[in-house]
UniProtKB/TrEMBL annotation:
Organism, scientific name: Paucimonas lemoignei
Pfam families given in the database record: FecR (PF04773), LysM (PF01476)
Origin organism lineage: Bacteria, Pseudomonadati, Pseudomonadota, Betaproteobacteria, Burkholderiales
Database matches in PANTHER family: FECR PROTEIN DOMAIN-CONTAINING PROTEIN, LIPL45-RELATED LIPOPROTEIN-RELATED
Ranges that cross the membrane: none
Disordered as annotated region, ranges: 235-255
Protein name: FecR family protein
Amino acid sequence: MRTVVLRFFLMLFLASGLPAIAAPANASGAEPITVNRASIVYATRAGDTLMSIAERFTTRIDNWTALSKVNNIGSDTAIPIGTPITIPADLLQDEPSEARVIALSGSITANTQEGQPLLLGLGAKITEGMQIDTGNNSFLTLELPDQSRISLPSNSRIRVAKLRMARYTKSPRTEILLLNGKVESRVAPLEQNKGKFEVRTPMAVAGVRGTQFRVGISANGTATEVLSGKVEVGRPNGRDGQMINAGQGNITNGKAVGKPVDLPPTPQLASAPTRQEQSGAQFVLTPVPGAQAYHVQIATDQEAKNILLEGHAKDTRLRLDGLPNGSYYARVSAIDRLGLEGPASTHAFTIGSAPPAVSGPLPASPTVEAGEARQLALRWSGAPGQQFTVQVARDPAFSWLVYTNKTSVPEARFPRPPFGTYYARVQVNHPDGSASPYSLAQPFVVTDQWIIHDGNPISAKNAAAR
């Protein structure tokens, strides 16, 4: 009778169309994982223990004790199926990462971990173990997957000691070994994803969670300069740590990890850069109390990713050679007696050809006449065959030009400007490339109906007295 009943229920079960064995929750074989910013959550399967989970997902099997604390599980025993196990990102295994070149100029050399030379260009991939050198007036900027940036100025050498990311969460794990010169890093925030970014030298290690800072090697030791955020500086063995805040720096040498000191204040450009000879440019900075030197970098972009030239000077005047005509950005900073460099100010500027040599007598100033309804006319005395430069400005120093032109006749017409006071002057250009001084400035007033001037030109020196 029992056999008949069992057969009856078996036939009924099969007839229902239900499977005899339930399919696993994830038939594709993929791990049942939820990825968060700073951790993953694993849903356990049959037979899982903390030790087996640690071996599969983390860097060491003995991390099971850390998992025990995080998940409040007291012992390494079989865990019920479907139990959520949180695994922090800093315990997860590594995966290879890479950086890419986003700006470079000058002479850059690179070698693979095996010592094979590489030719770097824009977009080139940088991987772990590579060594990179910058030559004189040569610059390189790298970008990591999280948009952190690493910039190398002139005469610097780094080795990419570690370039990895955590499996699943992609948390960065970057370590730069500075062998010579300097490196500036702008690190994306790492607090939430538990990433890691370190710059090491033979004497010090600087670790951050998201900040902008510089590390340099000099005769005094390793200099760390924090521009934003915080940086922890210590020995390579992890001892004698110092926390360096924004606006501070320190020197680490063979004797000690130096205490934080304030970085020098930021200088400004005292005036617009001027052309010196054919390709030189003169920069004049405002003085900073206590500064022992000044640093100027020239870039094509405001963030200074693409730097073209740089120079140092012991006073506030600095000349840079090899700068073509064009528009640029200057980053200027001060350096104190310890060799620590302060924050930089950034200035947009345009530089053109050098002014011609001045020779000859002072030409007569132009007269101003109303031309057609929408024009003004300037006239001055001149000889046949002469070439002239004529300028009109809103100020007697001619820093605010509204009109400039070269002409071969002693007359110029230009659109009638808005109501206001203006100044006009003229210069004679000689065949040998030299030029006369500019004439005295002729002031005039434009109204809705009249052009008013008294016929008395002035110099920039006595303009304020009028």
